[in-house]
């Protein structure tokens, strides 16, 4: 088997790798939390093993060599020869990261960092102890490595087999190859050869099924093999030989001991669950040795007697900390996108229908109205269901952050522990993808700026190891992601000092704690005097904030001196729909995002003051808010003199600018499907996007940030005028 | 290919002919996605005067350009008799407002003439040639020049 597998197989291998790597990191996570039971290690081992196997099939020698090395160390852990100390686990995590790198560079046909491979390899050797001859030969001569399914057996020296295995016993194997076995490039003879190393074996082949030459289909497989193997290795090792063919062959293994034959079970699950990922979950746990094992070490007492194992095994096999992955299908993103668009259309059509019907003066109990109500519900449910297709758990995102933290921890020399919470919370895939950069920046910040040095921590009576917590939770239709650290908190004195130095704050101005914290989001603000390796690359929290705000999210900080800092990001679950207030402005229907609206007022009851020539401000509860007419801003009309027939909407933006917008009237509040204006036209100042109303016409969605950015100064008004330009620049970045 | 000797028809192109402010125009039929009746547009703030607004084309937001205004022939007071020709130019879907679509013609390259010199520069910028057809002169519209350019006009 060499290079040259078709692109499609290659692509699906790399997709599979992602899942396997995720499973591996999950496993490490569990192990760090102290759950280093056999099953967890087994899952990790299998993930690495499967990556190696697949990589071998595509001739990715570098990847195979490293995975092999890594696997050897994991196998030692599995065999109980190495204990999973913190150091070992940390090394494993780094190896896992490197394995991810190798996978990515293999995918992109790039060269990975050989120095890293070598360094980690050496560390692995230290952990493993002196490598056996076979192992060192393999790691040195990676290129000549023969990527066959049975290579793992080279490294399964007999002494790693537990002593509990009965001597002089063996197995009876029935092996029926399905045609796929051969199309995948496997060769039964090699498998049998691998078995031969474990002991004396007799192989017989059943040719009864082979038809006459005239009817022989060369693409079919007609042979059945029976192997009588006398060996003292465990069943798991035998099973490993067939690991890569388990989905394209029927294999039954039964024990053969002195007292006769006692079957230990059909190998049903491997056939029923052909996907290699799942195979890792359904394979029997290590304890299933064909011996009398004490009942208490088994997951279920039912497995205690060999007779019961026959029936119990398929049911109990998927026992593991992580539930078996749900059945999934891979779908082209474009197809889902199209579906989402169509459903958006459906919802709009439904609204149009309702509107059309409402013109006909039907009585409230009318059949048509009832049916339309039913249609409405159905359309709503379909919309929800389709949106859910794109929803993905934040877990992979968090795992990427785990890696960032490990890297940051290595660079800064601070020991960091990452805690993840609520990683099952789901967010739209597009949101997730766009969160990678901002989150990376923030967790790096948390390690670099947030956590104190080890000495400072110890002096403050804290554990030397810092903790960074990533959490996700759903709150009223939005997802809230928090990045918190248990560091020293924000040094507000210093922040203020820097703010004054850079002309962001008037010296001596009275600032509240949150106003000072808000300075961190100002463009050009940097806490570090020197540019460190991690931060100071010209990307500040201001950029992070505009990225979040471009996603329709808000950011906030809370910090307590000596206890740590929490950054909260609140995001919409999807970028495709938005909760909006539908308003009339100069005969135009427009939509204002509900998240921005603080309150609505009738001008008659509101305090409006005029300043200068026509500039108006509204006083709401002791604060003055500039008033702006949407109609005038968009050039639809001149600002009306008399506001009595109008409504005021007080909005607040992500950058805490407030202003009151004059609109003619409010229509209603509803979910609208967001349509891009830029696809076929241009960006329009003050407009975020467009949507389609019930009557099929287009309404424009107002961009509160753009509107307020043009008229309202930041709320705290601490900024000196020159900085305002910079702020506008920043808010433009967000678009 | 040499046409006359081998007896082949000269290479023909089909164009859609339409009328804007009393003048005949045409462009390659391959650029036409569909032709629709006039629908009310949603006004875009701060847009060029020739951008009538946007319409909903089966879920897409499509801007409509008033060709008459764009060509300097006066603003169209659009009504139900007008048509919107939907075209795709450089990946952008754009609607062009015209009085009426008159014909679909097969035009040979031979029939295509350069724009006469006396035409004003403004018109020249939008026209890439003229076709003489049954005694009429049809102006070939340069689509890329009439659509609102992306990015530039945002400021």
UniProtKB/TrEMBL annotation, chain A:
Residue spans of biased composition, Low complexity class? 312-322
Q: Which reaction does it catalyse?
A: ATP + protein L-histidine = ADP + protein N-phospho-L-histidine
Q: Entry's Gene3D superfamilies? A: Histidine kinase CheA-like, homodimeric domain, Histidine kinase-like ATPase, C-terminal domain, HPT domain, SH3 Domains
Q: Which GO terms describe its molecular function?
A: ATP binding; phosphorelay sensor kinase activity
> Which GO biological process categories is it annotated with?
chemotaxis
The residues covered by the CheW-like domain are 577-713
- Residues bearing Phosphohistidine are 49
Give every HPt domain span: 2-106
Read off the PROSITE patterns from this record: CHEW, HIS_KIN, HPT
Keywords, ordered alphabetically: ATP-binding, Chemotaxis, Kinase, Nucleotide-binding, Phosphoprotein, Transferase, Two-component regulatory system
Gene Ontology CC annotations of this record = cytoplasm
- Top enzyme class, one word, equals transferase
Give the region (Disordered) as residue ranges.
301-324
| Domain (Histidine kinase): residue spans on this chain | 366-575
Q: Kindly give the InterPro entries that the UniProt entry links to this protein.
A: Bact_Chemotaxis_CheA (IPR051315), CheA-like_dim (IPR004105), CheA-like_homodim_sf (IPR037006), CheW-like_dom_sf (IPR036061), CheW-lke_dom (IPR002545), HATPase_C_sf (IPR036890), HATPase_dom (IPR003594), His_kinase_dom (IPR005467)
Domain of life, per lineage: Bacteria
Q: What is its EC number?
A: 2.7.13.3
Described function: Involved in the transmission of sensory signals from the chemoreceptors to the flagellar motors. CheA is autophosphorylated; it can transfer its phosphate group to either CheB or CheY.
What PANTHER family does this protein's entry cite?
Answer: CHEMOTAXIS PROTEIN CHEA, SENSOR HISTIDINE KINASE CHEA
- Could you tell me what this protein is called? Chemotaxis protein CheA
**Organism (species):** Gymnodinialimonas phycosphaerae
Automatic annotation (TrEMBL), chain B:
Check the record and name the SMART domains matching this protein: CheW
Q: Which PROSITE patterns match?
A: CHEW (PS50851)
| Gene Ontology BP term (one) | signal transduction
Identify the Gene3D superfamilies for this entry. Answer: CheA-289, Domain 4 (2.40.50.180), SH3 Domains (2.30.30.40)
Source domain of life: Bacteria
Read off the InterPro entries from this record. CheW, CheW-like_dom_sf, CheW-lke_dom
- Domain annotation CheW-like: ranges: 12-152
Could you name the Gene Ontology cellular component terms for this entry?
cytosol
Q: Which Pfam families match?
A: CheW
- CDD domains named in the record: CheW (cd00732)
What is the protein named?
A: Chemotaxis protein CheW
Organism, scientific name: Gymnodinialimonas phycosphaerae
